[in-house]
Specification:
Layout (H helix, E strand, L loop, with lengths): L3 E2 L10 E7 L4 E6 L6 E5 L7 E2 L7 E6 L5 E6 L9 E6 L5 E5 L5 E7 L5 E8 L2 E9 L4 E6 L5 E7 L5 E12 L2 E12 L5 E4 L11 E4 L5 E6 L2 E6 L4 E3 L2 E2 L22 E2 L4 E5 L5 E6 L2 E6 L5 E2 L7 E6 L5 E6 L6 E6 L18 E5 L5 E5 L5 E5 L4 E4 L19 E2 L5 E9 L7 E9 L5 E4 L22 E2 L5 E6 L2 E6 L12 E2 L6 E5 L5 E6 L2 E6 L6 E3 L4 E2 L7 E9 L8 E9 L2 E7 L16 E12 L1 E6 L5 H4 L2 H8 L2 E6 L4 H13 L6 E3 L4 E3 L8 E3 L3 H14 L3 E3 L6 H15 L2 E4 L5 H4 L3 E2 L22 H10 L2 E5 L16 H6 L2 H16 L5 H16 L4 E4 L9 H12 L5 H6 L3 H6 L17 E4 L17 E6 L2 E4 H5 L12 H7 L14 H9 L1
Parallel strand pairs: 1-22, 48-51, 52-53, 53-54, 55-56, 57-58, 58-59, 59-60, 60-61
Antiparallel strand pairs: 2-3, 3-4, 4-5, 6-7, 7-8, 8-9, 10-11, 11-12, 12-13, 14-15, 15-16, 16-17, 18-19, 19-20, 20-21, 23-47, 24-25, 25-26, 26-27, 28-29, 29-30, 31-32, 32-33, 33-34, 35-36, 36-37, 37-38, 39-40, 40-41, 41-42, 43-44, 44-45, 45-46, 48-49, 49-50, 51-62, 62-63, 63-64
Helix pairs in contact: 4-5, 7-10
């Protein structure tokens, strides 16, 4: 209590939390996540003899020891899907737990004992939002002790020694001259008189149990607040318990992955997405290099599409005569049907449905075609009646059943059931659950969640590997469904009449598996395995390769280009140059020289005529980086717009920190080959997660053997980084880091600073974000980052990415959301949401500024003290492109960084941090020519006004120049966002006559077509 040096009692990989000392029992109880699930543990007061007391699939949290040391109260979700947290009491003598408090409407958590050991008080609320403190005695009598004021939440109650008072933490917001601010305070309620008293003066009390030191003459409590351990007396003063702790940091050194940015040699295609085996098992349709291909097995594939619009999700009709796929060639993603006999012709959308249409799936008789929209709703089109029908009973007040990131739909044999991979959360307190088989009765809309492996035993806790192409997929004969679990292929029997699972799933292979698809006779399955197509009998056994003879070349311009820049900021520091020429040979900068008047004719050493770009009235800066993006959270719905939208705002490099693996690699290959227009793309696959997941592209990992399979996929597909996610236990996170570093040469990041920072993790992908604990180590619930966090980042070399998620600065520039680039390239639904978000920010310009200010204080401190902070967005969760520019503006406006420093967080710093600083990030001789052209007059200087950085007129990626007008052209039309067919044909990118590269100059393209 006097303070001093702290002594560690546990090792970090145990991940202990919420300790409670039991004087009567002589032990410490705590929750720990070792093993991948929260359980109750105890240990001796000196940290020796750690013992796990609970087990199983349930999360057991918040332990509190009874006054006599014989029992532990804790909260548990019971491993029951769709239930609520309950209060359990564990008898240490018998080892048995009994339920003390439960509710069908509310979660109960954070229990605490009355001094006589008869009553347990706890927080009750909806999810994590505690709205009351209630108590239940040994007879089951329940009372409400504290009710939260409107808009507030409660945490961590603690009885006084007499039991007549209770302390608790109350969190909400208060009004300040600068707008609403988060506040967390410690309060005491007298249970006899009903009077409440605030303890201490802190507005940032941490959400942990306070400890009563005395009750009379005034309440005196020990608690944590303001980044300290404090002691306060009600109505009196506050003192600190000063302490220090030594935190060892070991950085992992490794050889970084080498990138070949210059070779134009052929490379095998790895990014094969959604392969579909034809009913006769002789052909495969798939997406690659931004085209839909059909390959007769044993022969070379041929493309059945030939434009630069996005397309995806090929699906064979049951008779093998047609292929449905989605494309945005008429403005937004629609389903088209390609006739394999007539080779397409002038295809038209299947329906005029107003939303996006992806994930096409044919019914067994070919009369219906299911698809999904941008909201996660499933529909089907009836070819006989030419009508569209919603699938599934919608919740009250809605017209459709909108699922969160569902898998592709699949039809049962009789067409009476559709199966979809869907998230089934355990509780509302934490969002994670398992990806289960949702069967929908087509006629009634009735929904049934089916545990994925089996209805009982361990199988009920298994999860689809992803909610994408990993099933469930009905066999054509209607007797089974294929699905991927633990990254292996499984077959689950199905009742043919109802289409519902009728038995336990059976594993039929042991190799990494993705995207299974059936042959028409239901006897074979095609799937992807670490970049290869594989074919296996339904019964299992030996799989064989299906060879894919398909390669691509990087798109790289030839010849010399001279850019006359009126002003140049090269990214290295605060200085600028004026009236210079950037001389580019191919894709690299040859020199930066004082401007020379344009000669009548200039040739390079090969005799090629030089191209001149007049940017004499513009400021040229390095192309921007987006360091935190997930392109395919909603990327399929954006289609070709997404890459163009980024580039129209000056972004020439995207860094994925989690995406569907094959879609990410396809994007990297498509952008690099010129098959689709978009920035330079550093790809990764699905984040490696634990048993419980939330997003559709997180890999639920349940064994060390499976972890190796997940890592082998990353090696085979050439990930550029590895992301570990919220529920992955820390010893497996360490293993992931070791493989990524020493076998792949790539960096690793997660949502956690600790303990990864100590054993060599490269970064954290947010200042703070979702955690399994319910609180972050790096930022308080009040939004404050304390000096220890800042110093650990500053001293360790661990990178952090700021993803602000704040729309408040739209209020400073309301016209930003009406920009023609957004009108053309944003999806109609996201544009409507953006306009509404900006309107709300303009109406309440101070809302959210307090939280943003605190983030920028942290960003500026770390950045200015030799740490590494990068600008990111987490898009498309936040708004594409504009969110990055708001991030830069916030650094300047609220963090008081000079504009050049803010811009470095999206140029030089990410390039150096991700080990490509020799090639990217600045404008220097020898660097790749990735440039952004800003403004249309020299006064539009982003180093004087950071808002001007968004006023992009053109970009150059890898030496190829695009005006914003060219980027917008495919989605601009006189009457709306969708182009007429004639315009589409003129501006889409056909194969260039040379046959080995994609052409991007619209005028040249049209000329080639005329030829």
């Amino acid at each position: 209590m006097a303070g001093g040096s702290a002594t560690p009692l546990t090792q970090p990989l145990l991940e202990p939390a919420r300790p409670d000392y039991a004087p009567a029992g002589g032990f410490i109880a705590f929750e720990a996540y070792a093993g991948g699930t929260f359980h109750i543990w105890t240990m001796d007061p000196n940290g020796q003899n750690p013992r796990q007391l609970t087990s199983g699939h349930a999360d057991d949290r918040d332990p509190r020891v009874s006054p006599d040391g014989t029992r532990i109260a804790y909260s548990s979700d019971g491993a029951i899907f769709g239930s609520n947290y309950t209060i359990q009491v564990l008898d240490l003598g018998s080892g048995q737990s009994t339920t003390r408090a439960s509710s069908t409407s509310f979660d109960q958590f954070e229990p605490t004992w009355s001094p006589d050991g008869d009553t347990v008080a706890f927080v009750s609320g909806t999810g994590a939002n505690g709205t009351s403190v209630q108590a239940v005695d040994s007879k089951g009598v329940r009372t409400t002790l504290v009710t939260a004021p409107a808009g507030q939440r409660l945490n961590s109650p603690a009885y006084s020694p007499s039991g007549n008072k209770i302390a608790y933490v109350q969190f909400g917001t208060n009004a300040t001259p600068a707008g609403p601010a988060a506040q967390s305070q410690l309060w005491v309620k007298d249970l006899v008189t009903g009077a409440t008293t605030r303890v201490g003066t802190s507005d940032d009390v941490f959400p942990f149990y306070p400890v009563w030191l005395s009750e009379t003459p005034a309440a005196r409590l020990l608690y944590t607040a303001d980044g300290k351990i404090q002691i306060s007396t009600a109505g009196g003063g506050t003192s600190d318990v000063s302490f220090e702790a030594t935190f060892p940091i070991v950085r992992d050194t490794y050889a970084r992955k080498k990138f070949d940015f210059d070779s134009r040699s052929k490379r095998p295609v790895v990014g094969v997405v959604g392969p579909a085996l034809s009913p006769d098992a002789r052909r495969v349709a798939f997406e690659a290099l931004n085209q839909i291909w059909v390959m007769e097995i044993g022969k070379k594939p041929r493309a059945i599409t030939a434009d630069s619009y996005y397309k995806c999700d090929p699906a064979w009709s049951p008779d093998g005569g047609k292929i449905a796929y989605s494309s945005d060639k008429n403005g937004i993603m629609k389903v088209y049907v390609y006739d394999t006999a007539t080779r397409g012709g002038d295809e038209q959308p299947v329906t005029e449905f107003s939303g996006a249409q992806v994930s096409a799936a044919w019914s067994h008789d070919g009369s219906k075609l299911a698809f999904q929209d941008q909201n996660g709703a499933t529909f089907y089109y009836d070819f006989n009646t030419r009508t569209v029908h919603a699938v599934g009973a919608p919740p009250p007040g809605s017209t459709t059943l909108n699922l969160f990131a569902p898998s592709k739909p699949s039809w049962s044999y009789f067409g009476n059931t559709i199966a979809i991979g869907a998230l089934k959360p355990y509780t509302r307190r934490f969002r994670e659950g398992t990806s289960q088989i949702l069967t929908v009765d087509v006629a009634t809309g009735a929904l049934t969640y089916n545990p994925t492996g089996s209805a009982t035993g361990e199988g009920q806790y298994m999860s689809l590997s992803t909610r994408g192409e990993d099933g469930p997929v009905y066999s054509p004969d209607g007797t089974a469904m294929a699905l991927v679990m633990e990254s292996n292929l499984w077959i689950r029997p199905v009742d043919r009449a109802s289409g519902t699972p009728s038995g336990a799933a059976v594993r039929i292979n042991t190799e990494v598996t993705d995207a299974p698809t059936w042959s028409g006779d239901s006897q074979q399955l095609l799937y992807l395995s670490n970049g290869k197509l594989r074919l296996i009998p339904r019964s299992g056994g030996r799989a064989r390769d299906v060879e894919l003879d398909l390669a691509w070349r990087p798109d790289q311009p030839s010849g010399r280009t001279v850019v006359h820049a009126g002003r140049l900021w090269d990214g290295r520091g605060p200085d600028q140059r004026t009236n210079v020429d950037i001389v580019i040979e191919g894709n690299r900068i040859e020199s930066v020289r004082p401007h020379r008047d344009r000669p009548q004719r200039e040739e390079n050493e090969d005799g090629d005529e030089t191209r001149f770009i007049d940017a004499s009235r513009q400021t040229v800066i390095p192309g921007l980086w987006e360091s935190h993006t997930h392109e395919y959270i909603s990327g399929k719905f954006y289609g070709d717009r997404l890459g163009r939208l980024w580039m129209a705002y000056g972004v020439t490099t995207l860094n994925s920190v989690g995406d569907p693996a094959y879609r990410a690699v396809e994007t990297r290959e498509s952008f690099a080959s010129g098959g689709r227009v978009g920035p330079r793309y550093f790809a990764t696959g699905e984040a490696i997660d634990g048993e419980r997941v939330f997003y559709n592209f997180m890999r639920p990992t349940t064994s060390a053997a499976q972890l190796e399979r997940e890592l082998s996929r990353g090696k085979a597909l050439g990930y550029d980084m590895v992301k570990t996610y919220v529920r992955l236990q820390h010893d497996w996170q360490l293993r992931s880091m070791q493989v990524a570093h020493h076998e792949m040469g790539v960096w690793v990041a997660s949502h956690y600073m600790l303990p990864g920072l100590a054993f060599g993790m490269d970064g954290q992908t947010h200042v703070s974000a979702t955690t399994r604990l319910g609180f972050a180590y790096t930022r308080s619930s009040g939004g404050i980052c304390y000096p220890d966090m800042r110093d650990l980042f500053r001293l360790s070399g661990m990178l952090d990415i700021s993803t602000t998620f704040s729309p408040t600065l739209y209020s400073d520039d309301p016209a930003m959301v009406a920009d023609p680039r957004l009108q053309a390239l944003n999806t109609p639904w996201d544009q409507a949401l953006l306009v509404a978000k900006a309107a709300a920010a303009t109406a309440n310009p101070l809302n959210g500024r307090d939280a943003l200010q605190k983030e920028e204080d942290t960003f500026a401190f770390i950045q200015q003290n030799s740490g590494t902070m990068l600008a990111g967005t987490d898009s498309p969760l936040d708004n594409v492109a504009t969110a990055l520019h708001l991030n830069l503006r916030a650094q300047v406006q609220l963090g008081h960084l000079p504009p050049w420093r803010a811009l470095q967080s999206a140029t030089r710093l990410p390039a150096e941090t991700f080990s490509v600083g020799k090639d990217l990030g600045t404008i220097e001789p020898g660097k790749l020519a990735d440039l952004a052209f800003v403004g249309d007059k020299l006064s539009d200087d982003p180093l004087q006004d950071i808002k001007k950085a968004a006023d992009v007129k053109a970009v150059m990626k890898n030496g190829r120049y695009y005006t914003v007008a060219e980027l917008m052209a495919p989605f601009v039309a006189p009457t709306g966002p969708a182009s007429p067919r004639s315009i589409q044909r003129a501006i889409s990118a056909p194969r260039h006559p040379s046959g080995d590269k994609w052409w991007h100059d619209p005028e040249q393209m049209i000329e080639d077509e005329h030829k």
